[in-house]
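Question (not urgent): is this output format expected?
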Amino acid sequence: MTSVLEWTAGLQGVTGTPWPGVRYVSTWRSGGVSAAPWDSLNLGLHVQDEPAAVRENRARVRAGLPAEPLWLDQVHGTGVWDDTVQDLLVSPEDAPPCADAAVTLIRGRPLAIMTADCLPVVLADQAGTVLGAAHAGWRGLAAGVLENTLSAMRRRVPGASAWRAWIGPAIGPDAFEVGDEVRRAFTDADPGAAVCFAPSVRPGRWMADLAGLAARRLARAGVGQVECSGECTYRQADRYFSYRRQARTGRQVTLAWLV
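Got this back:
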């Protein structure tokens, strides 16, 4: 189930089934001050938008949150920042941690994942005591960023016996054309992952279901409940930025926090 969430400062986003102890939302691109082609709620400082506009956009998002989000320097890798172990509340002036996922036990501490086609994935135990958020493009997904995030969460709450995940807006299976090297990156390790690839109209190319691949990996890692937003960043230009649709573009953010 996917629903629209309207929140502070007139900003809008999409969320899924309510979870005990957790809030999560993916922003839409409307409600900000950035000019085209970043119009209008671009939240990425690394995409050549005016820094002052991005700071204002982030301030508008911050107004609807319990605290300043933990922003990451995402590099399409598998690194996980443990906000509880590191015991560091990163301020807006600090350089963000270099990682593609974060976990926390701190209530009211929003984790932030920026995307423009890649998967944002929110993870929690069923009791809502530990939270994780990950950025997963195909490279990070194949390399194990979701499994690494779950491992970090399990270390923090070893007694947790049940897990859930929400896969937010990302490029959909009818828009994500890839080469055979991408297909092999998944099927060499898991032949059953072939069900997530359909032949493209172009020879030697495949249409990849990135969310389906993530759901499959999460299930294999022991996540019992996996929900997908079903929102396509490529097709829904009114709601989302998409790097594949337009390389010079902004970034939306998926935010999650414990309550």
